[in-house]
Amino acid sequence: MNFEIMDMGTLRGLITGILLMAFLGLVAWAWSKRRKADFDEAAHLPFADDESAAEDANEIQSRSNRGESNL
Question: What is the pTM of this model?
């Protein structure tokens, strides 16, 4: 590659093209049907632990009422 004919505009154009292709690849990966089940499962993760989190909060509250350490 002859660097004398490659100016900053050409370099920026190449980098823009590479980043565009990477972005389109990421979008295609994220919206593929093969990944839907994994993403649906991940979307429900914040709600999966609500019961145990509520129990932990109640336990911490009862300890603080008794004057015990939370650690």
Answer: 0.52
